Amino acid sequence: MRGANVPQLLPCSVGVVSRQRRRVVITGHVQNVWFRDTCRSEALARDVAGWVRNRPDGGVEAVFEGLPEAVGKMISWCRTGPPRAKVAGVEVSDEPVRGEVGFVIR
């Protein structure tokens, strides 16, 4: 049979999973409520790389890099945060992927 046992050639982009990077600024009562530590645990559980830190204005800032679905789940998590947090707002901005590895608290 013609074509039997002959592998198909596929474009290079097929099967390539894209990553994305988002910077998130969270406002409200989000410091001294274990936001950063819980954020790190949530990110590691979802295989999301990046970092999280407190801001001088009382907010929290984070960068999430990973698969789009996982990054989206992290952004959704930020809208409520850990149990003691009272999130007032979440601002999200796109950034170019930088190849972050691991997730750290700064």
> Total domains, how many?
1
Task: Describe the main β-sheet briefly.
Answer: 5 strands, mixed
Number of helices: 2
Radius of gyration: 18 Å
Report how far apart the termini are.
62 Å
Shape: globular
Which sequence of SSEs, written as H and E, runs from N to C? EHEEHEE
% residues in beta strands: 25-35%
Mean pLDDT, all residues: 89
The CATH architecture is 2-Layer Sandwich
Classified by CATH, the class is Alpha Beta
Give the uncertain stretches in residue-range form.
1-16
Summarize the topology.
Elements (H helix, E strand, L loop, with lengths): L19 E10 L5 H11 L3 E6 L5 E7 L1 H11 L7 E10 L7 E3 L1
Would you write up a description of this structure?
With 106 residues, this protein is an alpha+beta fold. The protein has a single domain (20-105), classed as Alpha-Beta Plaits (2-Layer Sandwich), CATH 3.30.70.100. Helices cover 21% and strands 34% of the residues. It contains two helices and five strands; from the N terminus they run βαββαββ. The protein has a five-stranded mixed sheet, covered by helices on one side. A hairpin with a 5-residue loop joins strand 2 and strand 3 (60-66). The longest helix has 11 residues, at 35-45. It is globular.
